[in-house]
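Input sequence (487 aa), recorded before submission:
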Amino acid sequence: MLMAMLLPFLCCLSTAAAGKLLVVPMDGSHWLSMKQVLTELSRKGHEIVVVAPDSNILIDSSGTFTMKTYPVPYKQEEIEELLRTFGMSSFSEQPFLTKFLDTWEHFRKSSAIFQASCSSLLYEKELMKFLEESKFDAVFTDPVTPCGQIVALHLSIPTVFFLREHLFQISAGMALLLPSHPQVSVSLLLLLSVLSLAAGGKLLVIPVGGSHWLSMQEVLVELRQKGHEIVIVSPEFNLHVKPSDNFTMKLYQVPVSEEEINRVFQAFLKEAFEGGSFLERFHAVRERLRTLFDLGFIACEELLNNKELIRYLEESNFDALLTDPVVPCGVIVAEHLSLPSVYLLRGIPCGLDFEATQCPNPPSYVPRLFTDHTDHMNFLQRVKNVIFDTSNLFLCDFLYKPYEKLASEFLQRDVTMVDLYRKASVWLLRYDFVLEYPRPLMPNMIAVGGVNCAHKQLSQVGRALVLILILIDFRAPKTVIFYNVDI
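Predicted structure, token format:
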């Protein structure tokens, strides 16, 4: 087994004359596995130099290789305490969300130590000069911390990875699909990667009223409990969006009464289930959407023209913006403030979300609105589906052209809605493939179907399954990689 593991080394290091290997290891149990390989390589006559911090747990000098240490701004006791707390947390009985956040906090602290160690190495001029002059043949490293890759890139030499596996990773072209429970924690996964867990982040929220707000509100409450500062910008009349102790509300006036907003929504709900031919239903939907989007446009125009409020947003130094992009006002504000944006949505009319994310949505397989088809269509049904798909052109034109013009005037440059939507950092999709047709997702798209459903306590087995699904590794190897599998 050990000789099979050494095979890639013999491709990098000459077997006729002993090679020279630079090792940038990972401490702890990672080192114990790597050390056996180094011992065997040394026995074969290869020269090995190990570069490690002067404060570590298990990395020690040996007669089989040369040790080069460098000072780091932390002590060995700090590492040992971090490992101890992680071990206690791993086997404790806690609610899923608590355990997940504790694990995330551990990784954050570990990452800070790894970063400090790597920074100390890279800025240790004397040691780096030694590495540059030593003419190594290859770098051997555990890529769970990328310091070895950085050194290899700097020295322009081949890299060999030795690892158990990574946590929290997505391979190229593969989206991470998370389960629908627990609902809030799933949505928080990507938000917490944008906002720092060390100190509360500052989140700007531009919501859409009605049922859209009900889903978003749960996420905001949970974020607030974790110490993040939340500022919501909303028109003074916005269905269901009410002040709360969990966040700061910034209201602005709009020339629309609350009664008019309620009347429009009631009419929309009443007509939503009416039947009729395709043309009748299309016309009815078009008129209902036009009325709703007119209200949204008025509110957005008032916000962007509110110089005092815009100045406040510019000076507040937010870390990210959360919005429902069905009404693109938050999208425009995020572009103006140059903020990373997180979208929480069910969908965007006329398929702009597919176009912006460049996700395939072929009419030959995906049934369109009003067709009443399934995903199993004969030739004539597919032709009908293509014809119905042209209705999106008309919907996009009259729904989003006004916003496009408004955004161009406000940003003082020509933009399209697709251009703005493509700037999204993360798409949180309220989808569940139990109810949706199969479709590919891009790496920054996360399915969070169930975020707006009633809570249900998971069993211990359910919690374990959810954690496994979140941590599952879709990695495809891109270089020489060893998987150290414990059997």
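Checked by second reader. Residues 96-122 form the longest helix (27 residues).
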